[in-house]
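Proteins fold reproducibly. Take a sample protein:
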Amino acid sequence: MKRLLIAATILCTVILIIPTMLVLFVSETEETTTSTVRSVAVDQPEEKWSYNPEDDMTVAVFRSQQNEIEELPLEQYVMGVVASEMHPNFEMEALKAQAMTARTYMVKNILQPRDVQVPDGAMVTDTVTHQVYQSEVELKEKWGADFDLYMARIQEAVLSTQGQVLTYEGEPIDAMFFSTSNGYTENSEDYWHSEFPYLRSVESPWDQSSPRFTAEKMVSVAEFQNRLGVALPEDGSVGTIVERTDGGRVAKVVIGGKELSGRQVREKLELDSSDFQWQRQGDQIAIQTRGWGHGVGMSQYGADGMAKEGKSYEDILVHYYRGVEIEALDPFIAQMTAKAE
């Protein structure tokens, strides 16, 4: 009898302890799993990058609104350009690609200044003539409460690529970029006169997600004729698009016997793109465009689309700039310093 009582007591104890152990085990497992998920979800850089502005070379930017020249370290200038030219919410690899283009553009401009007049003592302007640049003070006003979050992303993109430039046959390239393609980028000579082997027309299907992939603009007949310096035909037509580029944009049009390039039409009518078509609707002309920008070089929305598919900034850059390499900036520092003096 005594043995039966002892056995029953042990059995009850086991029955009570096992569920408790299971609950404790499950709770600990759930806590560990939740902790892991949280750490993965946090968007933090994998490592910190050291940067001392005092060791960086100085660049001089003409501030068009202030009418003064601002001197600042190169990488800080690149931060101001990336923050101004691409939204901080773009994918990190796209932001890194933008940092590479901004840095390379500036380096190229120092070594071989473009045929654009800038005030004495300045290297570039802060406008679309070169690259849009805004200071931290301006960005704080622009972003408000989001400044710290956005600036952390910009700093990561720039400092994780610091000291790197894009080269072709050992020389920094003209790292052109724009917002949105029509599905293809443009050969450089089809928009400008110069032909560059690395600025070739390539596919860019990711741009369809851009809010500016398509647009329509209404222009009065009178304004259309005045801006283009043409007389429209009496038959109610607008003109004939006689040639398109490899990138699908308008190369030549003939309006009332006058030949114009697609670029001329785009700039004179202030269209989003030189990929356009049009119809006359009474005393108005409806013009539909695809894409936004000149179309040469890296598409920003294309870069973001590639990054969303898991492509790295290196993948993005070698897609949009054919035959280029990513090299260290160091070999060009002495040349840039000599040019800047």
Residues 143 and 150 are 8 Å apart (CA to CA). The longest strand covers residues 214-220. Residues 1-46 have pLDDT under 50 and may be disordered. The first helix runs from residue 2 to 41.
